[in-house]
Structures are given as structure tokens and as C-alpha cells.
Batch of 3 targets.
Target 1
Amino acid sequence: METANGNAGSAAPAQNGPQEDASGFKLKFCTVCASNQNRSMEGHLRLAQANYPVISFGTGSLVRLPGPTITQPNVYKFNETSYDSIYRELEAKDPRLYRANGLLNMLGRNRVIKWGPERWQDWQVGMPRVKHEKDQGSIGMEAGVPDIVITCEERCWDAVVDDLLNRGSPLNRPVHVINIDIKDNHQDASIGGGAMVDLADSLNRAAIEERDKVGAAVFDAGGAASRASFDERVPEVLGEWQERWPGLPSTWTLSWF
Amino acid sequence: MAADSTSTAPSGNGVSVAEQLEQLGAARKLVLENATYYDRIVKGVLPIIGPTAPVELRRWGAEFLAESLATPVLSMRDKENITVAVLDTIRGLLDAPGEDVIVLKASIAAAASAYPVAVRWIINNSYHTESWEQMSAVKSRILRIWDGAPVPVKLSCIKFAQRVVLAQTASNGTEQKYNGLDISLNMIPPNHPLLDPRQLEAEATGLLDRMLGVLQDNSSDALLVDATINCLSILTRSRPNTSNRILNTVLNYNPLKLANSPMTSKTRVLVRSLEKTTRMFLTHLLRRDPNNPMSGRIQQYVERLMRSRAEIFDEAGRKRALADQAVAGYGDAKRQKVEAGAPQFSVPPLGPGPHTLAGVFTLTNNAGLQAFDATQLPANLAAKIGVRTLAALDQNVLDLALNGIRDRLTSLHAAGAAAAAAAQPAVMNAATAPLGVEEDDDDYEPDLTPAEDTEQILNKLDNAPPEELMGHAADAGAEMALGPFSLPPPPTLDPDAAAKLSQAAASRVFGPLSTLKDPGAAVRKPKAGINRLAASSYDRDSWLTVITRLATRSTAGLDGAPSSGIKSEEGALDRPRASLGDSIRELLFTYILEDWRRRIEIAVAWLCEEWYNDQLTKRNGSGGELNYEKCALRLVDGFLSYITAQDKVLTRFLAEIPELSAPLLGKLKALCADPTTVQLALTSLLYLVIMRPPVREIALDTVAEIWTEYEDARPLAAKYLVKWRPGFIESQTRGTGSDAAAANSMAIAT
């Protein structure tokens, strides 16, 4: 997949390292797209496979999937519809069509990742997610607060940042919100998923380096680069990542839960 | 376990740090599963995570405290209990000299969550001076380490200060009653023995200034600026006394300062982040609080910001473009040097012997190029090359080449005539007679080249009388001349096939769209306004104008007339076929819906054309079909199902299309079924009421219908109705009888 993007050479080294160590420190991730179906779920799966704690959401008002024509989308409610029920409904409606356009394949994947699409705006940050132990990527996510939110579209990033402003940051906990522009189709979602894992690995490495430094004394020793904390290194890591993935424009901010 | 002494817990029970962390992890899981354990477990871990514990335990502890004090599962009362119990530990962790950054960061976050809870506790339990002393000590310690602290700690300090300001300023009651956000100066009685409201408010003002300092200094430290801006929203919205101060500071802040430094990948991330964060904050306020007296200024600032951002990122594009031009110019200069020799360009006369047609037209001396078979090129590429070359070619060179070829043909005719005269059969084939290298021929094919003979014959022929030459030339040239060619007559088309083909033709019209560049994205060009000529530039806009006119006007008056005799002869079985215009309309509709947010302009342009065409049809009185209303309804139906609360394009669309009708606006009612889009629908209508007086009544009718039909939308609808149709709601509520029907029926055309 990465060869398809022509980035395999530079991205490959980032795949090693922390991933081998499944038990070490792990940043917690949250992926967000419009309907919590394609791009965020691809990211959810890939990050979970790389052993990162991860949850995922959609920012749309409803879950919208393509229908027989462009004016007849299949529309479902967030939080109340499971991937499995959508799968069964579409399969009953027109198995040939929905297999051909990849929807059944995608839903089949999603239903083994978690129960159903969740809406970002309805999510209560910090509610323990102990009931989700069957979800992929649930280990480490019990407290329900991610360190990094990755959105897949500028509109979703806007919605997330705006929603966080609206919530008024009651938890006093910083969160890096990063957008990666991924086109909403199966192939680009897959490329984007690989890019997310690359970003996650790079960020996690920076976070581990920060945690390995013990005590304030470290801050007085060494040059500026080694003194820089994880938070400070996020823009730098993202800039380097952007050079490896020039086709996926990114935006970042530090916000609060 | 035989634990090594360094990692043994101070409790001295011989358990290693790793094991202790594991036990603590299990305890944490327990409270996450059942919140009733919080009180016991938080108090239980306090001795293990104190300032003297190993750093791993302190980190875990501080993060656990931050998490526990922030959790939304505990009620305020439970939190008060825990908060009072942990203050001492937090104070200890913060006071320890040279404390670890992660411990400090988490402890300050915990203090930020503890602060409003502690204030609330003290308000109600003023006798408990000890807790307030501890909280105050924690506060002054945090404010002391703020300035010199490493960045992650600073972030937490900013947030702590924000919570202090929030708790110590007067609220307007618009914040959520959640997690201590609602604790404010309003709650503190003026005669409280420990808390002096005036003093607290003064402290808050000072702290707010300190927070805003990073913006006033016009800092480009994206982390601190983002962290500050992203926690200001609730202050601005719910603490009126801070609002002006914050807005003035943000509006004087220049997030694009960094753009002047060289753009590395990191600065690019930082500039985007600062600009986008500032803009998000301001647009958020505009949206939540459109009546803010500063909203005009905010609007201007946001627009200016977007313009300068576009310029900065455009600038990069423009610079590249200039560089490209420079390179191109340089290349041209070089090419001209070579072409200085062009006037000497000459067409070598053909060698003797028969030649292929290609040979006759070959001008180059390069053997490799001569061998190139141009028929291998795909036709479209060849055409492209041809057009490019002709466009760039110097007229003199072209004339030279034409004359050269003409000479060749003349000599060829002559040679053919001579050959006929000498009755000499052409024995050579093209492969053995390389063209344009006649001097060398003798070297390798000496016996096959009758060079001498031909020379002589040519000389002889030069002296021959011209009439004879002409006659012979005509005979010889017959082989090469093109005979009259007529296309085979096309197969007769049955109507179905014709319809199919016209549809294919229509879809081909859309072909160029994908290749034409979008002028809006790359280049900002000056708008010509009303002086604009449709389709005068070769970009996507022009092509779309052509398409919309093809759809609306090309067949106007042709397929509109229903009573043509031919049609009736075809019999009743003839199903209605889509005309060319309709199939283009169909494709245009799909094209717009594929990306309707960005193609809304096209939709408006299309509808304008439809409307205009309808007017023409009406004036002609030909009874042709009217399409405007149909298309407009269809478009609205098309994208309404995708609309979300952020889609302001709806307002714009409604404002710009030439005619609105009651059924069209009636579609908006469907939006009110979804609570998130109620506001969008109603503000769109309000805009029409204010800005388009001719449709004011229809728009108000629609608002009235929404008021009657959708319970959820009532408050907002009522607000507009009270202003614009006074008395309506009273009449509704008084005489519950539905005269909405009456309103329904009065559809007024604009």
C-alpha cells in the first residue's frame, strides 16, 4: 500500500522501533471522520493492529453511506445503529451493488472492530470505556481520554476544534488535534491508514524519549533539541511526517478536553 | 522478590516498583469500572505516591490524581471529598525541588480541576480554613514556577490560570453546569470570612493579563498561543467582564508573523496552526454570539486573515511560477541563438529514384529521425504536436519548407516523366534508397544507383518544351494525386439509437471539465463583473457557461413544440425520450451534486440560464416547456439530504437564484426535522426576509409553517416572527384554529 504512495522508502524506518515493544508506553489515539465508517475506521484498525489504544468517531449529523443513486444515500443514526445491522440491511437491499462498491466489505471489517458508529459531539470525554473491552484498540483506552485526535478532513477538524471550544475544556487536559486530508474512498483510506500509523509511531517515539528522561536535572543538561518535550516536538514531528507524505496535507493545534 | 534496593518502594514492604505499578493499575481499573471506589482508592494511594516515592510512582500518582479530579462520573459532592483529601499531596509534589516535568504537568492539571471545587467547598464551609490555605499555597506555588518552567508545565499553568479566572469572575450563566465550569464570583457572598470577592476579581484580572501576555508579545510559540486561545472561548462567552479584554488582545494578535521567516516544514505547520486556531476561535464566537458588539470587527479580522493567508500560500505558488517563467525565458533565449541559423535552413533536393510519400515530406537530415515512423503516434498526440509546432513556427521557416517541398514535388514530377520517357522501371525500394544523403549513395550501393543517368535525363528535360512536361507530369502524378473521396452514407438512425448517441454526445461535453483547471483554486483573477464576456477565457468557468447554455438554449424552441407532426406519426408506443437539452441537464445535475458544496456557483449560474430561457419562452408564447422551477426543486431536493449545520452555502444559494417559490422554500421545512439544521434553515429564511423584499412574504409564510409544524423549531421561528410578522403568534395561540392553510395557499411569485 505504501509503495502505491511512493513513500515506502522513507516511511519504512518509522515502522520499526516502538511497534515491536507491545508493552511499552503508548500514546492514546482517536480517529475522526464524517461518518465513522471508512477513513476513521481504517485508521482505527491500523492503529489497533499496531498495538495503540484507539477509539474513533464521526462528526456528521447522521451516518451517510452511498445509495443506488447520488440523491438516495443510505442514512443511519449515530450511536444507535450497529455496523452489523447496516451490513445486513444493505445485503438484503442489493447485495450485488453494495458488494461492487465496497460497502459490504467495509462494513464487514467495521463490525469486527467495534459495535457501531459513534458521534463525536455526543461523546462524553473521560467517561470510562470499560464496557468496550471487545473493541479493537480498547486496551489502554479504559479511561476514555486520548492524547492525540487525528481527523481525516478539514471539515472534521473544524468540527472537533469548534466542539472542544464549545465544551469549555472542563477536564484541563491538553490534546493535540491533527488533521490529515484523506479522500473518502477505499484506496485513499487505506493509504491514509498507513500514514496514520507512521505518524503515530513517530509521535510515540518522541513521547517515549520524553518519559525516559527522569527528573528536572535532565532539562539543564544537553542541547535544546534533547531538552524539548514531547508537546514541543509535535509540530516538528508532523513537519517531518508531512515531507514523507506530501500528498496528505495536515493541520495541527493544541486544544483542551 | 529480591528487589534491588534502588527500585524498592519507600514503604519498605519489599515490593518492586513494577509490581506496585501493576497493583496500582488494577486499582485504577477498579475505579473506572465502579465509581463508588474512587473515594477509598484515591485516599489509599496517597501515601504511595507522595513526594518521596520513586519517580515512576509519582508520575503515575500525579496522572491518576489529574484523571480522578477531572472525571465526569463523580458528582460535585464526591469531588469535594476527594479534593480536600488530596490537596496536601498535590502541594507536596509541587513543592519538591527539581521535580520531574511529567509529575509537575499532571499535578498542576490536577490542581486546575481541584481549584473550582475547593472554592465551592470553602464558600459553603468557611470554617475550614486549612483547606483554603493549602489551595492558596498550591496556587501561589504554581504561579511562581509558571515563568521559568519547561513548556509542558507552562501549558498546565496556563490552564490552571484559566480555571482561576473562570472561578473568580462574574458569570452570565450561559456555561454548562458541569465539572465546575459554573463556579463563579456570583456564588461568593460579599461578606464571606475567607473569600473577598473584590480581591478575588482583582487577582483574576491580573491573571488574565498574564495569560494574554503571550498574545500581546505577538509570540510565535504555537504551542503556548494555541493552548491559550483554545481555552479562552468559555471565558469570552460566559464571563462578560473578560470578553472585551480577550477579544481586543486576539484581534491585535498577528498569527502570520512567522510567515516572514524561511518556510521549513516545521514553520509551515506552525503558521497554519496559529492562523487556523485564531480563526477557529473567532468564527466560533461569531457563531455562538452573533449579537456581540464586536462581531463586525471580528468579521473583518477573519476576512483579512483569510486573505493574507491566501496571499502567503499563494505567494509561494507565484514565486514558483515566476521561477518557471524565468527558466522558460532563459530557454527561449538559448533556442533563439540556435535559430539564428534558421534563415539558412534549406530543403535538400531529393535524390534520384522513387521515393515514399513520407520521404518526399521529410525535411530532416538526421538518419535516426528519418527512420521514425510517425504513424505510430496516437492521432491526438500527433495533432497536439502539430498545433504546437505550427503555433511556434517562424513564418520564414515555414515558407522555406513549403517552397522546398514544392520544388521537390516539381522535380519529382519531372523525374517521373523522364523515367517514363526512358522506360526505365523503378527497381529500387525505399529501404535501399536512403533519402537526403544522396552524395553517400554511391559508396555502398554503387550498382543500384543510376545517379548519372538521372542527372543527364534531368538536364535533358530542363531543355524540353514545357507543354510536354506538363502532360507527362499529369500522367505520372496521377498515382500520387488524391482521387475524389466521398464518405459512405451514414447508417440510418432509428430514434432510439439517436437518443442514445445524443446522450453520449452530451456526456462528452463534460469530458474537458476534468482536465480544465479550476481557476478559483490556483489563480485569483480580477473579476470583470458585468463587463465579463461569457466563455471568453479557456478555463473551467467558461466551459461551464458553454454547458449551461447548451443545456438551456441550444434546443430551445425545437424540442419544446409538442405538436410536431413527425412525433405523432411515430405512434403511441413511442415512449418519451429525453431531448439533448434534458440529457445535458441530467448530467449537469449529477455533476453539481458530486461536489455540491463547491459547485453551488455552477448551480446558481445554471438556474439563472434556465430562468432567462423560461422568460424567453414565455415571451415567445410558443408554449414550450418551462424548466426553471423543475430544475431548482430537483437541485434543492438533491443536496438537502446531505446538508449539515455548517453548510452556509444554502443561504447563499437561496439568495442568489433568480426566483423563489413557495414549494421551493417549503423544502426547507424538512431541515427542521433535524434539530442541528433548524438554525440553518431559519437563518436562511431570515436572510431572504431581510435581503429579498419581493419574497419576504413567502419566506415569512414558510417560517410560520415551520412554527406550526415543528415543535422543536418554535423558539427560533417565534423570534423571527415576532419581529417580522407581529401578531401572528398571538393569533395562532389564541384561536388555535389553523390558518396556516390559508398562508399556504398564498403563493406569491416574485
Target 2
Amino acid sequence: MSTEAMPPDYFSNCTHCGFCLAVCPTYKLTGDENNSPRGRLRLWSEEAAGRLPQDEWTDFYTAECVGCLACETACPATVPYGEIFEHVRHEHVASHRFKPKLALRLAAAAVTRPMLFNLALLPARLLRSAGLSVHRFLFPGSPSVLKSTAAYADELMQRHRPTGPRVALLTGCLMEAMFREINFATVRVLIENNVQVIIPDGQGCCGAFQEHTGLDGVETLRDQNRRAFGALDVDAIVSNSSGCGYALGKTLEPGKQVRDVLGFLGELGPLRRQRARCDGTRVYVDLPCHLVHGQKASGIPANVLDATGYRWELAPKAKDCCGSGGVYNIQKPANASAILADKSAFLNEAEGAPVILSTSNHVCMMQWHSAGATGLVSRPYEVRHIIQLLDPGEKFSIPSNSPQP
Amino acid sequence: MTSPVTSSLEQQLKALLPRGRVLTSAAQLAGYGADGLGYKNHLPDAVVIPADAEELAGFMHGAKSLGVPVVMRGAGTSLSGGPVAAQGGVIVHTSALKKIREINTEGFWCEVECGVGLNDLDAALKPHGVFYPPDPSSGPVCTLGGNVASNAGGAHCFRYGVTSNYVLGVEAVMLDGSVHRFGGPAGGRGPWREDWKRFMIGSEGTLAAFTRFWLRLLPLPEKVWTFRATYPDMKTTEAAIHALVAHSSYPAAIEMLDPRGVAMVESSQMACGLPEGSFMLLVEIDGPEALVNARVQSVAELLRQAGSNDVMFSDEDALRQKLWKARKAAGGLLGQLSPAYVVQDAVIPKRALAEVLQLVYDEADAANIRAVNVFHAGDGNLHPNFLFDSRVPGELEKVELISKRLMQRVIDVGGTLSGEHGIGNDKSAYMPLVFGPDSMRLQLSVPAAFNPAHQMNPLKVFDSRHFIA
């Protein structure tokens, strides 16, 4: 939809109160009101009303937005900023006012073909498994190189035969192709908690990649996932990445709610990991924007964080954006780094041995890892998905007193 | 497209601000057309964002020769059309001046730059066990510069007083670039000249650019109790307000939401179970724990005796937030109901409350305009919100007419125009209703003394304040 084609009411419930300024990462960075949600909405609405000609500065300020949606949480008038922004960004790309970087255009094409994408990233999985990942975004991990999450889940389901609630897991594109060890850990944690896990055939990328870049193809991906998830008879559809879960949630019809796997586990009351008394680990929990501002979750349940067995606390400014923004750290690396610098500074002084920065979105994990790789944080720390802190490892059994359906 | 005039202005500005930012493109000015009064648009010729206080002073040194109006702006949340370029010119956005320079817990004061956010200051003060009392509802985003310029208030000003009670000193830069300190950490306890800071507070950007302030702090109250009571009619509500004002517990805040506000909250996703058609009062008492705890039952009893059979109270943070919910949600909900609204800010003697509210209802109903009242009842600071759609021909005119009639009644009952929002260009037309020609002349002589050509924020407060280059 072009800005011209938007219904005039689209912008009308912004009363210009300015509450979004205080939470906007690019306004905080630049102090320029055009670089805030209120400013951008004004530019788009003035252009749509024909009072402001197309201007390269409008294109610039549009491209500056991280898409963190903190403004939606702050907005007393419930302006659907994310939806408007998505339309405008798509329009800017379609009309060549903005061109995503080549690497992102290639990646966007690749994620639409999961088989190909998995194959293309096989060398990357190999390198990560061998502990040879060198890119600033590639946090360490040991993904299975060949076995898929679907095959692994089948195997564990056969072996353990859980009897509790049934869930369908979204395995994602990048998560499956690059960070598969997180999917494996998710399957183990769910099954250990007596949850039946199915990995629906034919699922694909959630579409967030296209949404973040403004490129075409999001509807095709959404159709594919509607077919894969729409008719399932399950207790819940779960995702282990807040961004993917948010995107899939927008895809499926109301009633087919997509749950963040940690929120789902919170309701079950997950098994608690035991740690040695002398364990000096400290976990600092960061809340992904698309969990708290997109999915509007209040956070990650405390019983889930307690179940990690570690001493944990929320990272300072936990609800502020880390600068990842899906692909923002590739599209706007300088801004992303400046946002991260402010947010990650505490790690230099943080207590704990070791220190773990933990969150629930792989793209945020990549950004957090880059803080060390680019020298913003000078002391050692690990980046882990919270589900990994609950992971029982390969050898586990379902306790006999597990909750029944 | 930039005209030759603009490009020459741009060059001059760039010379004055080598480190800061200069915005002149059409799409860079559009974001600065309005403040919280979103439907009124005044485009500036340029916007500058000085990198720090030194650069702001440098800019002011050369600003006179620019020959265009100079308008100071913080977060632009004001509701009266204050920080907008009503006569064009340059907007000076102070977003980079956000350092908290000192928190002095021995002397109970702090030193802050003008662009510091109010809630950011609160968060920084809290670990020291001190607070800065003024609390306008825009706290999450508004800046202290804007607070001082409009002498901001808030819910707790009933007992604590407004911004002017807490400003110990102001550093201001005149249009010739000279930097002046009016007061300082020691406040007004100096030579007579010190209290010139009172000229600065509430001056709405018409005198000088502020760079930093010294603010008075208080120890955080040990204990806070929040009460919520609903009443069937205005008469019983008024009785409760009068009783509260006279009560020895001396509440910190007495807030009110009228039945139309209650209906708005209850039909939204923020519904919290308020009875239909009721008036809601929200009261807070605070102070030393033993003292405040001893007063809880008497306040609850007072609220009941005035005619409420629905009194709730708590000292637990989570529950207190729930009690505040309807009051806090009300402001934002207006935006969900209507594309635009005008909020008035009149202060009236409390005895006239029922009479003035009735006028608001009668006038709004007759004009078929929705009106919602949510306000600081304790100090008679009304905030009738008139909801309209500026795209519907005639609606704005209707609202302006109602506002004018309301203001006339406010003045007839002995009230005044503004309690905390400032006059800006939204209420300047009503100034002659309150002040006679002699008073207007005297007041105008103040900005004229500081900047004789009225180059600072022209067309604000007084309609006749034009800048003549």
C-alpha cells in the first residue's frame, strides 16, 4: 500500500502528545524529532495528505527507524505504528526510495526456500560446531550439522513418549539453518516437561525478514505458514524467538495464538535445574522488543528464570532496544552499535563468574555477542538463550510426577 | 526546495553551530510544526540542535543578527502552542542538553541542564532518597526547561506547590549572548537581584534561553496511601473535596474524573469497574509513616460521610497503581476517541466548581461536541477536554466559541486562564479578558526589557507581541 493509498484515518489517532519520544532509540541517539515516531508519523501523514512533497529526508528518517515498537507500548492513543511503518517501508522499497543492502536482498530470497537456505548455511554450521566462527554476530554453539530439528524431535518423542499438552514448534529459518542447537534445546526442555512436540511439515520463514527489509514476498510466506499451522489440532503453537513468534502471530487467524515458549513453560511450571552451591554464575536477562512491545508480554515469567537455577536479574534498561532490530544492525551498523554501546556498558562492571547475558531471540543474541567482538565490552561474557539455561542435556527422563493433560 | 533566503539563513546557522545540527529541508521542518496541541501547525524556517550549552550560548550571541524569531523547545509536549514557530524563524531544540550535573543531598538541591527529562531526574534522585515534587502528567517525556518555562504543576501540587516553589536558580542566555545566573544553589537568600529568577519561571520562552537550573529537593515521603472513592452526583463530590481541603491530613493530591470521563474509561480496555454515571475522586496522603498511618481511617471515613459507599485505599505500590489507573488512562484515551482535542487549563475558586462544570456540559451538548473533565480538583485547576475533528468544517470554530464562553465564566467567578499549561498561542486571545489594558502594558514591558524587538518566541502569551526585524 502506498502512503497515498492509505486511508486518511490511518494517522488520525496520533494526537502529537510526544510520549513516544522518550522511548525511541533513534530520538535518544540523535535528539532530532523527525527521527522519532511522532516525527515520522507527521512526515508520512503530511506526504499522504499532499502537503509535503516526496523528500529524501523522509526516506532517510523512515530508514532510520529500528522497528522496536517501544513507541506502541508508550502510546496512550494506541496508534498502530508498527503496521503503518511496515506499509511505508514496503512502499519505499517498492518505489525505489530505499534499497536494502545486497546481502539482505539475497538472504531474503534465500529464506523463502528453507532446503536451499539450510544447505547454503551448512558450512557455517560446520564452522560453528568446530568452534571456528569468527563473524562478530556468530555467537559460539554446537549445532547439529545434518540432523534437522524435525528428525530430532521425532526421535526424542519416540524415546520419551511424553503425555502432556501438544505443541507445534516453529523452527524458523535462521534459527534452524544457523543456530539449530537452540531448537534442539527447546525440544529437550519441552519434552522433559512432558510436553508433546510436533514440528509441522511445510512450515517456512515467518516473514519477519521481509517485514524488516520491506521486500516483497511476505504474503507467500504467510500463506505457507497458514497452511502448515492453520489446521493443526494442538494446545499451542510455540516459538523460541520472540520476533518469529510475533510475525507468525500476525499471520494466523485470531484464536490460533502463537505463544512464546518461555511464557508457555511459565504456565506449566518448568522443572528446575540444580546448580552447585558455589556456582558464581550470574545471569543478566534482556527482554526482546518483539516480546514486550510486539507480543505485549509483560516479560519472561519469573518461575522460568528461577528454574534455570542461576542467580538472575534483569539487565539494566531491559525493555530498551539493543539495536538489533532484525536486520537493522546490518542496514544501519553505526546506529545499532551506538544503541548497543549504551545498553551493554553495564557488562564491563557486572558481577559474576561467569557472566551470562541471556535473552529469548536469536537476533538479539547476535547483537549482544557483537558487543564483545567489536570491543564495546572488554570482559568475557557468554550469550545464551534462556531455553539453553533450562536444557537437561542429552540424557534426561520425564519425571513420573509430571503434569498430565 | 530551498529559497535563497533560506539557504543564506542555513549558512549563518551552520556558522553559529559548527558542532550541532541545522535542519532546513521541508521534511526536517515538518516534524517541528506542532507541540502537544497537534492540530495547529506552524512551520519554522529552520531548526537547530545545539551540541551543548556552550554552543547554545554561542548561537544566542549571533541570533539577533539572524533577523528572525527564536523559539526554544524541549520535548514539545506542551498543550498550549508554546514551543512552535508561530511567526516562523528558528526553533532551538535543546534535546542534547541532558546532563544531571550534580545531586547534592546535603543541601537538598540538584543542578540540571534544561533538556533533562522529568522522570529521568526522578529516577536519578530516587536512590538518594530525595525527590523533586512537580509532576505534570507528561513526566515520562517532558523536560525541565519546558517545566520551568511554563511553571508546570501536576497532581501533587495541591500540597507541594508548582515548579516555581522548587527553582532555586536559573542560568539564562540573552539574545546578545550574555549569560546570566539568577539565583543558584542558595536560592533566593541573597541580594534582591537574585529573585529575578521569578521573571524567568513561567516566561514561556519570551525572555531568554535557559541552559541550566538549580532545583530544590525534598526527602522522599516514608509512606503514601492512595484512596479512590466514587460519588453519585456533583453535590456529594463537592462536599468531599471541601472536607478534604479542610482536613488536617492535608492531602498531597485530590484528583477528579467526571461521569463522562468515567464512561470513557469504562468503555475502553482500561475499564476498572467504576459505577456508571459516577464522579471519581482520587486522593493521596503522604509523610512520616506513623503519622500517615494514623490518618488513614479518618480520610476513608471523611470520603464515606460525604456520600460515597465505594471507598478503596491501599499503601501497596501495585494496588495504588491500580487505583490510579483510571485517572492516568483518561488522558491517553482521549486520543483513541478523537483525532484532536483542546484541553483548557482554567483555575477557579472551588465554590464555583459545580457551576462551571455545568456550563461546560451545557455548551458542549448544545454544540454537539464531546467534553470530558479530568482535573486537579484540590486546587480548582480544571481541565475540560473538548474532543473534535479538525477535518470537519466548523468543529474547531465551535470548540473555540465554547472555550471563549467558558473563559468568560471563569473570569466572572474570580478564576484565571491557566494553572499549569501556560498561555502559548492557544490562550493568548483570552488574556485581555483577565487583564485590563494597564496590566497588559505592564506585563508586556517585561519581555520588552529583555528583548525589545520581541525576537524571542513572538505571538505567544500576548497576541500583540510581533517580532519586527
Target 3
Amino acid sequence: MTASSEQRLEEALRDVAFTVTASPGAYREVRSRWRRKERRRRLIVAALATAVVLATNGIALWALNDASPDQHIIFTDPTHAR
Amino acid sequence: MAAVSDDRPDTVEALAARDADREAALAALFHRHHLELVRLATLLGAESDAEDVVADAFCELHRGWKRLRSEQAALPYLRAVIVNRVRMRVRHLQVVRKHVEWVREDVASAESQAMVRDDQRALVAALRDLPERQREALVLRYWLGLKEAEIAEAMGISAGAVKAHTARGMAKLGKTLEGQDDG
């Protein structure tokens, strides 16, 4: 491939590229798209965090509810264990 | 442009300031490079989806902003995302075109195509018929004027492979150019 061929390719690409234009409101459109995606991402993270907290609370309440009132599952003193 | 890494503690004010910095940096990047990136996507074969591909790349950059190693890595990152997205789109279209009768889209509108000479149009058409890696290497080198290492980063391959793809692509295009010279 000669230098002139490379030059011809460069010129062809440049001329074709210059026929391509972008829409005038592109920035506003893209910015609203990335903001929407970010909001959705944060909403999903918040929903997941809430679900985890609710699930752990539920499991803890269930465990406490099922335990015998005489059995101290949180503060067990090993010296009094039989 | 804002610093990509930020050591401030995660207070509400710091997070808001970080978001504002990121938006400002992305806005500056967008206004400087958007048109060039749309043209890159078009030349790579994104056709009418070029703006959409570039918009997706900016959204991905927005999401991964904190993971960038430096501000200077933003543009190469965008190029790499665009190359990947266009490659996926072209592959998808190849499958679609096997099943549906397809009328090929021109790179730009008919009106703007009139500004391009016939031999140039034929050359770009021949470029688009090349295997994707060869086309990508040639567009990145001869339109964006990137160095081999930058092309390798954008394409996710080694510099040696870039050299091989460029040489093979140019050899094939050489035949088109010879045909034009003979005709």
C-alpha cells in the first residue's frame, strides 16, 4: 500500500465523516438518559437495601418469637448454663 | 475537569458535589467530542444508530466515572465502548439480514452523500465490506489518526494484532483502489 493510497483513504473517510451531523438537542437527551439510569440504579439499590433490612428484621423477630421465654438467647451467661 | 478519584468522606454535601463535578466533566467531554464520536460510530458501521450508540457510551461512562484511572482515560474509554457496541450491532444486523430482505442504508443522507465523490463512496463501501477488526483498525488509524497502542486499547487487542489487521485491510482496499485507477 503506497502513501498515496493511505492519503486517498484518509480523504475519503474525512469527506464521508463530514457529511454526518449530530442532532442539536443531543446533549439534553443524553443527559436526561444518564440521569434516568442513575435514578433507577439508586432506586434499585435502595429497594435491595430495604429488602435486606426487612428480611433480617423478620428473621430476628421470628427467632425471638419462637424462643422460649426462659431461654436467653442474646445475653447468655455461660457460668449459669446447665 | 473534575478529579475522577475523590478522597472526601461520603457526606450528603460531598456526594452532591461529586455528582456536580461528574456532570460538569461529562458536559465538557460531550461538547468537545460528541460529533467526532458520532462520526466514528457511523464510519464503523453504526449507520442510523450512531447517535444512540454514542449516547449509550456516555451513559456507561457516567456510571463508571469513579472507576476511571484518570480524566485522560475518559476518551479512550468512550472509544472502546463505541467500538464494542458497533461491533455488537453489526453482528446483530448480519443475523437479521440473513432472514429479512434488506435494503442497505447509506452512511449519511442522499443529500449529503452528493457531496462525496463516487470513488470515495466506493472506497468507503469497500471498507464496510471488510471484516470488522480490519475495518475498525483502518477507521481508527486513518480517520482518527490514533497510534497503534491507542487503537489496541480501543479494540481490546495487542498492538501486533492491530498492525496485522491494518496491513490486511489495506491490502484488500488496495485492490479497490487499483480498480478505480484502471477504470
